[in-house]
Design goal:
Strands 6, 7, 8, 9 and 10 form a 5-stranded antiparallel beta sheet that branches. The chain has a 4-stranded antiparallel beta sheet with strand order 11-5-13-12, sandwiched between helices. A 3-stranded antiparallel beta sheet has the order 2-1-14. The chain has 3 domains: about 1-155 and about 455-480, Triger factor/SurA peptide-binding fold; about 175-200 and about 335-435, Roll (Chitinase A, domain 3); about 215-325, Chitinase A, domain 3 (Roll). It is globular. The protein has about 475 residues and is an alpha+beta fold. About 25% of the residues are buried. The protein contains 17 helices and 14 strands.
Length: about 475
């Protein structure tokens, strides 16, 4: 702990003596609190996002990334907001606080205790080779501590009632007994026919949307590991990838300079420029390692913004530049006929199935209102029901057919209620809730503190999200140029 504390004191001196978003490259990607965020600073903050994922800092990633839109961009700009607001609130911590937080991180522990060997392993294999430093780790820990302190303040007034505790416990553990009537789509597909006239009419109606795939072609430079018969040892592989990443980042930054030429920068970096064939988004080319991420990046590029961000793959890194776009073209009738046949048959079969399911459901409901049991009502409707295994959120019966749809629908029903027909990927189900079993009172007493903690954390998360949204709106954030390349 003494060594970590000394390193943190040095880091504190470094961090408190700099203005992280005031200097750097002249290429600005945003302004916030009236100050520019340069491209170099954006990239550095983006590496912190990657590092936080590698270090399994799930709360920090989830709270700042907010799981909507672009997690990486949200993490970067929300992190600046967090730091700014924490400073305004006087939230601070000591070097001992930071040292304890680092030692408490799961990735640095063995059997629940800090393991200095693991710390050294991650430092050697993750931080250094991938361009990170101990300062980056301290910076992340500072954000994590700020986040937790602000959440503690926001959550101080959250206190769930006894009824909320009981209701939440019941939602998770109370078992439900249900029966299901199933209708299979394949049974209706087998008897559904489509004529040529139907197909021609559908083609005329839909031909505006019946098109070939758009194709892309890109130039690229590859910073990848050489192909060898014997794989590199983990440490050597990590070091090699770290060196390649630095080269890729250097090339990417150079391409942001005014009038930068792809071929010229490639020559300076000592790499060859290659070009792919035309390819659709769903079929990444072998030249780019069959990488879906590379294909996704290629299809974000435009003639106005032809240069892409670094694409990370298992074998290394690619930087792309748009070389051509082949627009989608309309399909001829013969080209579209097979797809149209399948679509029309499925649409008609689904429509017939829905009508039949509604008819059966209404018949069962009417028979039950007339005094029959569910089983007798199903028989009167010329249908067949089956028992579904008793389930709860805690024991959801995942292996059972259509489990997700059935358990979701049953959750909205009371005892003795029957659902409307619910579509499933293979047909439709009608769900009848027979009984809600009593909760386990002894288990409730034991679990109550954990349920209270869960409710507190959930409400605190909502409060923090709203707080962060308001503070970000007040930051004056403006994206002044694309951060995508």
């Amino acid at each position: 702990m003494i060594l970590i504390t000394i390193l943190i004191i040095i880091s504190f001196t470094f961090f408190y003596s700099r203005h992280d978003f005031d200097k750097g490259s002249v290429v600005a990607v945003a302004t916030i609190y009236g100050r520019p965020v340069t491209y170099a600073q954006y990239q550095r903050a983006g590496r912190k996002f990657e590092l936080s994922q590698q270090l399994q800092m799930e709360e920090l990633v989830g709270s700042l990334g907010v799981r909507s839109g672009d997690d990486k961009d949200n993490f970067i700009y929300n992190g600046i907001v967090l730091q700014h607001e924490a400073e305004k609130l006087g939230i601070d911590f000591t070097s001992d606080d930071a040292a304890e937080a680092i030692q408490a991180m799961a990735v640095f522990q063995t059997n629940g205790a800090y393991d200095s060997n693991k710390f050294k392993f991650y430092n050697d294999m993750l931080l250094g080779p991938k361009g990170f430093t101990f300062d980056d780790l301290v910076d992340l820990v500072r954000d994590d501590l700020r986040l937790k302190k602000i959440k503690t303040v926001l959550g101080a007034t959250v206190a769930p009632s006894e009824s909320e505790l009981r209701e939440t416990f019941a939602e998770a553990t109370q078992k439900t007994e249900a029966s299901v009537v199933r209708l299979k789509l394949d049974d209706f597909l087998a008897t559904t026919q489509v004529s040529d006239d139907d197909l021609k009419k559908a083609y005329e109606e839909r031909k505006g949307t019946l098109k070939t795939d758009e194709l892309r072609k890109v130039k690229f430079v590859a910073f990848t590991l050489p192909t060898t018969e014997k794989p590199l040892e983990p440490k050597a592989r990590a070091e090699a990838l770290g060196a390649l990443k630095k080269k890729a980042e250097g090339f990417s930054v150079a391409m942001t300079e005014k009038d930068a030429k792809f071929d010229e920068q490639a020559a300076k970096a000592g790499v060859n420029v290659e070009e792919t064939k035309d390819f659709p988004r769903k079929d990444p080319p072998a030249e780019l390692g069959n990488s879906p991420q590379a294909a996704a990046t290629a299809f974000k590029l435009t003639p106005e913004q032809p240069n892409g961000d670094i694409v990370s793959t298992r074998q290394g890194y690619y930087v792309l530049q748009l070389a051509g776009i082949t627009p989608a073209r309309p399909l001829t009738f013969e080209e579209a006929k097979g797809t149209l046949t399948d679509d029309l048959k499925r649409d008609r079969a689904r429509e017939t199935l829905t009508l039949k399911a509604t008819e059966i459901r209404n018949k069962i409901d009417a028979e039950m209102k007339a005094g029959k049991s569910f089983a007798d009502a199903v028989t009167a409707a010329n249908a067949k029901a089956e028992k579904f295994p008793a389930f709860s959120q805690e024991e959801p019966q995942i292996a059972a057919e259509n489990s997700a749809e059935i358990t979701t629908v049953a959750g909205d029903l009371k005892e003795g209620q029957i659902s409307t027909p619910t579509p499933t990927p293979d047909g439709s189900v009608i769900v009848f809730v027979e009984k809600r079993l009593p909760i386990d009172e002894e288990k409730f007493k034991t679990m109550k503190p954990r349920v209270a903690d869960f409710l507190n954390r959930r409400e605190t998360m909502v409060l923090f999200s709203e707080w962060l949204k308001l503070r970000r709106n007040a930051s004056g954030l403006q994206i002044v140029t694309s951060t995508k390349g």
